[in-house]
Write a structure and sequence with these properties.
Blueprint (H helix, E strand, L loop, with lengths): L12 H12 L12 H13 L10 H8 L12 H5 L9 E2 L22 E2 L1 H12 L9 H5 L15 H9 L2 E2 L7 E6 L4 E9 L6 E7 L6 E4 L3 E2 L18 H5 L5 E7 L3 H8 L3
Parallel strand pairs: 1-2
Antiparallel strand pairs: 3-9, 4-5, 4-9, 5-6, 6-7, 7-8
């Protein structure tokens, strides 16, 4: 039976299905069949993130977007050149734990801290990947989760979550292993870190990581153990001769949890780009 138009004040099975679809799309909603103020607010967030009129009314277009999982139609996998093209926006940024900035508002967001002076790990990965996967947008609590909001230290929830879970909700990654780049969110008992594994040398186990931090020869965004993007835009195919870090060394103790998702980036395009150094 066709679903009808629903809005604040509606009740019944259509409302419950709408609430369940919102939750599946990354907008957690209590599926009680009652279209109250909370459901209306969430519907508006979903509509805004999907380019719809944010009026809180669930009609044919909103139902279609909900059925599609709230995911935009993307041309995947992307070429790594789309990622690298954004590097110049972050060359001047230095690392800070607090009051970090994004070069511009991430899709779907209106942030106070916009600029090219300061960055941290989650601001870096969120801005870089949301613009690399053109067409995605932060909605619901996706930004808060990527920023690891709340009292979460030492007790991260089910894997994957945080940034990796948002990537899955966008349809821009997979939990299946394979060649390519990975988004990582790791936790120790006292903190966490977000970074991207760009390449992996199977023979040595070494990994090339792109991250924002103030350790590993970095003070800002760049290649761990090699240098900042402002000093080394492309580490080259011989990056493995410049690092000692491996998958094992990055995910072992003191980490208490590691959240991982493989990004929808063409592995061959990564090698091609590194070869242009």
């Amino acid at each position: 039976m066709a679903r009808g138009t629903i809005s604040k004040g509606s009740t019944g099975d259509d409302v419950k299905e709408c609430q369940e679809l919102l939750t599946s799309a990354g907008y957690p909603t209590t599926a009680d069949g009652i279209f109250g103020a909370g459901t209306e607010k969430t519907v508006k967030e979903f509509q805004q993130a999907n380019g719809l009129t944010a009026d809180g009314v669930v009609g044919a277009k909103t139902w279609d977007a909900l059925d599609a999982g709230g995911r935009p139609k993307l041309d995947l996998p992307i070429d790594f050149k789309q990622v690298a093209a954004l590097f110049p926006e972050m060359l001047t940024q230095k690392y800070t734990l607090h009051d970090a900035q994004c070069p511009s508002n991430p899709p779907g967001m209106r942030l106070k801290n916009i600029g090219k002076e300061r960055t941290n790990c989650v601001q870096f990965t969120s801005w870089l990947l949301s613009y690399s996967f053109a067409g995605v947008s932060f909605g619901g609590n996706q930004w808060s989760r990527w920023m690891v909001g709340g009292d979460l230290q030492g007790k991260p929830p089910i894997v994957p979550n945080w940034g990796p879970k948002v990537i899955l909700e966008w349809g821009c990654g997979t939990t299946e292993p394979g060649k390519g780049a990975y988004l990582i969110q790791s936790f120790t008992s006292s903190g966490g870190h977000s970074y991207i594994v760009v390449d992996h040398d199977e023979e040595t186990g070494k990994i090339l990581t792109l991250e924002a931090t103030n350790v590993s020869k970095l003070n800002g965004a760049g290649w761990a153990q090699i240098g900042n993007l402002r000093d080394c835009l492309n580490p080259g195919l011989d990056w493995k001769d410049k690092v000692t870090q491996t998958w094992e060394s990055r995910v072992q103790n003191p980490n208490v949890a590691v959240h991982v998702v493989r990004l929808a980036i063409d592995p061959d395009s990564i090698q091609a780009w590194l070869g242009t150094a």
